[in-house]
Amino acid sequence: MDQSDYRTILIDHNNRVLTLTLNRPDHLNAVDEVMHEELSRVFSDAARDKDSDIIVITGSGRAFCAGGDIEWLQDGIDNPLSFERTAVEGKQIVFSLLDCEKPIVAKVNGPAIGLGATLALFCDVIFAATEAKFADPHVRVGLVAGDGGAVIWPQLIGYAKAKEYLMTGDPLIASDAAQIGLINYAVTPEKLDDTVAQFVLRLSRGPRQAIRWTKTTINIGLKQLAHSIMDVGLSYEMMSNRTLDHQEAINAFREKRKSNFVGH
After folding, report:
1. For 91-117, what is each residue's pLDDT tens digit?
2. Helix (H, G, I), strand (E, B) or coil at 64
3. pTM to 2 decimal places
4. Measured in whole angstroms, how far is the alpha carbon of residue 84 from the centre of its chain?
5. What's the rounded Cα separation, in Å, for the pair 35 and 42?
6. Where are the chain's structural domains?
7. Could you say which residues of the chain have pLDDT below 50?
């Protein structure tokens, strides 16, 4: 992989481990138009990368990924046809994560919100700092949780809990997320790097093909679900992008006040 192909994701190789670092630290690694496009191809590029066997994804600075950048969300309202490209890229992000045979480990160093949560939860093994927060607050900005949350949350924590968190957008700290099975492990921030490194080392010493093909086999069911849900979810999200409630949520965020939703 070539760093020159990416502006918002750092590429690092070390002992056949490829680390992808979301790199908009001044914006808590919130996803803008550029990062979204890069995320739609980075896992396909990583799958083809000849210099790596294992992938780690993390964030720079204080966050893993704070979700959608507010200016990008406003642009989606002002230019609704641009959401068509966003929807295509959203599917590519999810399916490239599922199609990649290499193990993908999430190292969640801080908040994983919205698409950030989706990115982390579609990884194969998820480690997080104890106080990192996970949330899919699409509904809090008047959007449908269509970018993958409706696929992966129910598979990890069951439908009842998934509906609770997706319909409210409430956050969980990593220790609680680990307790209910949303993620694998919550560890103290100072131990996060070493814990992930030890797990990656264990994988690297295992039978590469057996590990890859086991992942591929497990992901068949997830891909079937994703194929049946993603188009519908993204279509509903595209519709909700045009609602007054979505614009109200964006306005409220900018004005640092509570949203006054009207239901249309």
Report:
1. 999 999 999 999 999 999 999 999 999
2. coil
3. 0.96
4. 19
5. 10
6. 3-204
7. none
